[in-house]
Amino acid sequence: MAYAALYSGGKDSTLALWLAQERGIEIDWLITVLPERNDSYMFHRPNLDMVPLLAEAMDIPLIQKGSSGVKEEELADLERALGSVDAEGVITGAVASRYQRDRIVEIATGKDLKVISPLWGMEPEEILEMLLEEGFECVIVGVAAMGLDDRWLGRELDRECVDELKAFNERYGINVAGEGGEYESLVLKAPNFRWGFEIVKACKNWDGHRGTYDIKSLRKRFYSAKRNF
């Protein structure tokens, strides 16, 4: 059965992809939708230009499609993206957003595609703990929540970071996995990467309330992967 994975380079889509592979599902394509707007309801935006490097590290063909980023119009863009490959199923990194998952399921159903969402319904803390346990290395590339200032931009999502996010959850009520848009991430190392990456050049953009960590270049970093797919 041929599968495509919706992929942004962030922790959720990368973890979902890896979990699908762990179940024996072969991923034939990665599909990345590139929204023009920063406030897309459906799609991740920061550092999407780094995704081709991550796809190369996983040795999976990448399909990139543009999107207006306008609410609801994005659905037609996603439908066209899924229609560009001869897949029978789609992997998503959806965790708790019914807005995103319901619309993906609606489009997939119309195309007779099976939808697999390995993270759906998982507790936010469980997702972060799994990332740490399985050796994922991620950096925070966008913040937009109380307590998350410019010092968080470019920060590694390590044990100390996770513990602080849990404390902010108790203090401010933020979702520790960023499901409410509190933060965005980019994966630099994963069990299904043939090599990892280190950041060579990046800059912070901060407006006093929210910001992004814009990565300009990455360098390959070789290591012994847990498993090669």
Please tell me about this protein's structure.
The chain is α/β, with parallel strands linked by helices and 229 residues long. The protein folds into two domains: 3-116, Rossmann fold (3-Layer(aba) Sandwich), CATH 3.40.50; 124-221, putative n-type atp pyrophosphatase, domain 2 (Alpha-Beta Complex). Helix content is 29%, strand content 27%. The protein has six helices and nine strands; from the N terminus they run βαβαβαβαβαβαβββ. It has helices at residues 11-22, 51-58, 73-82, 98-110, 124-133, 159-172; strands at residues 3-6, 27-35, 62-67, 89-91, 114-116, 137-143, 183-189, 196-206, 211-221. The protein has a five-stranded parallel sheet with strand order 3-2-1-4-5, with helices on both faces. It is globular.
CATH C-level label of the largest domain? Alpha Beta
Number of domains: 2
The CATH fourth-level homologous superfamily of the largest domain: HUPs
User: DSSP strand (E) fraction?
Assistant: 25-35%
Amino- and carboxy-terminal Cα gap: 16 Å
What is the total tally of β strands?
9
Uncertain residue ranges: none
Order of SSEs: EHEHEHEHEHEHEEE
Specify the number of helices: 6
- Regarding quaternary structure, how should these chains be classified? single chain
Which range best describes the helical content: under 10%, 10-25%, 25-40%, 40-55%, 55-70% or over 70%?
25-40%
CATH architecture name of the largest domain: 3-Layer(aba) Sandwich
Protein structure class? alpha/beta
Biggest sheet strand order reads 3-2-1-4-5
Radius of gyration, in angstroms, nearest whole number: 17 Å
